[in-house]
Amino acid sequence: MDDKAPLVQFLGLTFNVTNLISITVVMLITFFLIFWLSRKPAIKPSGKQNFLEWIIDFTNNIVGSSLPNSTGQGLRLLAFVLFMVIFVGNQIGLIFQVKVGDFTYLKSPTADPIVTMTLALVMVVLAHFLGVGKLGFPKYFKNAYLSPYAWMFPLNVIESITSFLTLGLRLFGNIMAGEVLLNLLGSIAFPHGTLASISWLGFIPALAGEVIWQGFSVFIGSVQAYVFVTLAMVYVSEKTIVEEL
Amino acid sequence: MFSVDVLAGTKLASGDMFFFILSFVILMLLVKHFAWGPVTKMMQDRADKVANDIDAAETARQEAEKLAGERREALQSSRQEASTIVTDAKAVGNKQRDAIVSDAQASAAALKQSATAEIEQERQDALAGVQNDVADLSVQIAAKIIQKELKIEDQKALIDSYIEGLGASHEA
């Protein structure tokens, strides 16, 4: 991406200000959305509570389809929050993209590989951690790396790495591509990136294209949130449940 | 301490990872406290309530079925009872009718018999009375006839004829 982002050094770590802002905004929006939806829960649900319960049922089903056990019970909240964060994160860049000068200050955090790889890393580490906790290290090692046959050890090691990479890069690639295309369409209307540079010839097709592409991106963002949560749960189930041969 | 590095992409923004994980964990805790807990509890309550309601409905249905069965049985038995009562009443009525009829017949026969006997008695009495009267009357008539006819010439003639008869028979 040609977007430039301001970087800050703090405690020896490098911080990307765009990501800090985007992540914070996404977390706030997600929290207030869920907070608002969950006010005054009642036995007989109405309106927004139905909607929230529908989402909760949806994520619970994702967890339940790969982990129909106590491990799955414990991961329901994680799956729900994960889904909501990725969903909101995917959509936010479609609605707002704040660019000041050369720097972008607000975009989809999931369009940045560092964020998606962090998420994937967390999920993969969690899967291995739960695997060790549930099976004990020898059994976990055998299940994760020596099954179905011991000679498949190298393949299993590679598979562990690739599953982590694909989990993070799939999300990143989908969302980043969506934003790149939005920016390209935008640059038809504003060739030099400023309001003054508006090209009326390009404005109408650019607007139509943006509307169509945004609609499609909403769909992609939802599907990617679903896919990410599903795959994360599948990895956890692979590491925690010994498949009987 | 702060230094802005405008050369994006030249350094791995490792701080973002920590920031993201930290904010994600905070969000998860907040959601758990404010939304997830109450809502899932409510969902569980509802599931329990629905299960209870289904059980209660099942119990109520069984109760109703039992009651309906009892009602049906009671109705059946009362119908049977009613028909028994009617049959009994009919039998009693028939018996009473027969008794009344036979009583009436018997008393009618007795009445008839006593009437016949009475009539016979009266006839006998009347006959007896008539015989007595006839006897009296004949005696009186005889007396009257005898008194009237018993005159001296007649007696003489009679005695004479009787004596003539006697002489004739002697001569013979």
TrEMBL record, chain A:
Superkingdom assignment: Bacteria
Residues spanning the membrane: 20-38, 77-96, 116-137, 149-172, 184-204, 216-236
GO cellular component terms, semicolon-separated: plasma membrane; proton-transporting ATP synthase complex
InterPro entries, per database record: ATP_syn_F0_a_bact/chloroplast, ATP_synth_F0_asu, ATP_synth_F0_asu_AS, F0_ATP_A_sf
Compartment(s): Cell membrane; Membrane
CDD domains, per the entry: ATP-synt_Fo_a_6
Pfam families assigned to the protein according to its UniProt record, in alphabetical order: ATP-synt_A
Major localization class: membrane
This protein's UniProt keywords: ATP synthesis, Cell membrane, CF(0), Hydrogen ion transport, Ion transport, Membrane, Transmembrane, Transmembrane helix, Transport
Entry membrane topology: Multi-pass membrane protein
A biological-process GO annotation: proton motive force-driven plasma membrane ATP synthesis
A single GO molecular function term of this UniProt record: proton-transporting ATP synthase activity, rotational mechanism
Entry similarity comment: Belongs to the ATPase A chain family.
Role: Key component of the proton channel; it plays a direct role in the translocation of protons across the membrane.
PANTHER family: ATP SYNTHASE SUBUNIT A, CHLOROPLASTIC
NCBIfam families per record: ATP_synt_6_or_A, PRK05815.1-4
Name recorded for this polypeptide: ATP synthase subunit a
UniProt source species: Periweissella cryptocerci
Gene it is expressed from: atpB
TrEMBL record, chain B:
Keywords: ATP synthesis, Cell membrane, CF(0), Coiled coil, Hydrogen ion transport, Ion transport, Membrane, Transmembrane, Transmembrane helix, Transport
Major localisation: membrane
Segments forming a coiled coil: 47-77
GO MF annotations in UniProt: proton-transporting ATP synthase activity, rotational mechanism; proton-transporting ATPase activity, rotational mechanism
GO CC field: endomembrane system; plasma membrane; proton-transporting ATP synthase complex
Entry's transmembrane regions: 17-36
Compartments (UniProt record): Cell membrane; Endomembrane system
Cross-referenced InterPro entries: ATP_synth_B-like_membr_sf, ATP_synth_b/b'su_bac/chlpt, ATP_synth_F0_bsu_bac, ATP_synthase_B_chain
Superkingdom of this protein's organism: Bacteria
Pfam families to which the protein is assigned, alphabetical: ATP-synt_B
Keyword Transmembrane helix applies: yes
Bilayer topology: Single-pass membrane protein
Family membership: Belongs to the ATPase B chain family.
Purpose: F(1)F(0) ATP synthase produces ATP from ADP in the presence of a proton or sodium gradient. F-type ATPases consist of two structural domains, F(1) containing the extramembraneous catalytic core and F(0) containing the membrane proton channel, linked together by a central stalk and a peripheral stalk. During catalysis, ATP synthesis in the catalytic domain of F(1) is coupled via a rotary mechanism of the central stalk subunits to proton translocation.
Quaternary structure (record): F-type ATPases have 2 components, F(1) - the catalytic core - and F(0) - the membrane proton channel. F(1) has five subunits: alpha(3), beta(3), gamma(1), delta(1), epsilon(1). F(0) has three main subunits: a(1), b(2) and c(10-14). The alpha and beta chains form an alternating ring which encloses part of the gamma chain. F(1) is attached to F(0) by a central stalk formed by the gamma and epsilon chains, while a peripheral stalk is formed by the delta and b chains.
HAMAP family: ATP_synth_b_bprime
Name assigned to this protein: ATP synthase subunit b
Naturally occurring in which organism (per UniProt): Periweissella cryptocerci
Gene name per UniProt: atpF
